[in-house]
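Q: My labmate handed me this sequence with no annotations at all. I'd like to see what the chain might look like in three dimensions before we decide whether it's worth expressing. Could you predict it?
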Amino acid sequence: MKILIVESRFYEDITDNLVKGAVKELQAVGAGFKRVIVPGILEIPGAIRYAVRAMEMRATDERYAGYVTLGCAIKGETDHYDHVCREAFAGVQTLSLQYTLAVGNGILTVHNKAQAMERAEKRNFGGQAARACLRMIEIKKDLGLLPK
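A: Here is what I predict for the chain of 148 residues:
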């Protein structure tokens, strides 16, 4: 089983902690993974769609059982934050439903860096996203969408 981790590096220190938690969870169950880096959370859905399209076209031998999205948006002084967050989440959700993808969403949307670090380090949202992805893969297996 291989998982694609799509990580936004806009806030590198926060993402490093999210990745650390996700990788630890995946390694604990013996899941393989590949990391793809995108500039910001708005680009995460595009990267997932590229991976799906590459599999559809048989442009790659890599097959992903699931996807883990990691990144962070911190609220600023303008409404840019609201638009970016809404579109990133909607894009990931749309892909999940349209292509029956197992996704664990670890995109943080917070008001300040302290909240982000609390969630990334202490509350291990990266690990939670990986566990959510793994659980969704199990549900797909239970419902006959993947071989057991």
